[in-house]
Amino acid sequence: MARFVLHRLVLTIPALFGLLVLTFIMLRVVPNDPSAALAGENATPEQIAEVRRAYGFDQPLWKQFVIYVGQVGTGNLGNSIISNRPVLRDIADRLPATIELTFVSLLFATVVGIPIGAIAAVWYQSLFDHAVRVLTVAGLAIASFWFAIILQMIFAMELDWLPLRGRFPEGLAPPYHLTGLYIVDSLLTLRFDLLGRAAEYILMPAFTLSLAGLASIARFTRAGVLETLQKEFVHYAEAAGYPRLRIIWVYVLRNSVVGATTQIGLLFGGLISSAVAVEAIFDWPGVGSYAVNAILSSDYKAVLAITLVVGLIYALVNIMVDVVHAWLDPRVAEKL
Length: 336
What we know:
By secondary structure, this protein is mainly alpha-helical.
């Protein structure tokens, strides 16, 4: 297992390099001049040309890329045009908010999606099964930004049950910084009053973000349980007199969630990319809203750094999923 994890970590390096090459080329193909953004709105052509020379934008593209890769190799991802601070510091300040939102969404999608999919498969062709199929198709088809606005209109503007936007109430100090995740920090410091306030703010963004993932996990679990119910060992267990609930929730479900587990790993990357729109709508101070501002401001070093960090997180999560996959299915572990 350790050899497998090390092998996957080594393979992550060329994958991240390829991601960096593609992002760098795509950013420079776009007809935006980062020199003009750096020089300011009222800058003269001479001032823009001076900025271009100072930052090396007048160099050939391949040379700029080589210089940038050299900086990345030393851990220097450059300074942001927006904040004039190191990009890594900006991302480190905002990453916990995105990680918290993504994990809460993924947890909600998993905890709700797997039981719903399993029950739909056990009650195959029932009214519940038909309802799950319709709702999961709707969950995959609905655009997250539209769903977010509808939730805001109903629960924040009409009913006034939940806050419209933001991560924490203004004027109220967040929990003591331990991890940067407000929910975790509230639990670790036993500040349950702050835990409730943090939960209020994350509820709508997390539900919005989890909708497509929940639908996908439910459908994969349903298909897996339906297939496993036809296996011989299930018929043998039923003939041997095992309780049906034990057969389903212990033996069938464990053999059925392998596909859903792989899907969860793939969903993680999708959730982070979808978080860009959700964070912008809910004014969530995460990497997604930072990425939107960076793109609009032609802050290409910030965009490159965000792409690299998100790609690294995505690769690490997929390695973790493979390990869990091997734990659930010993046949996979033998191949590692």
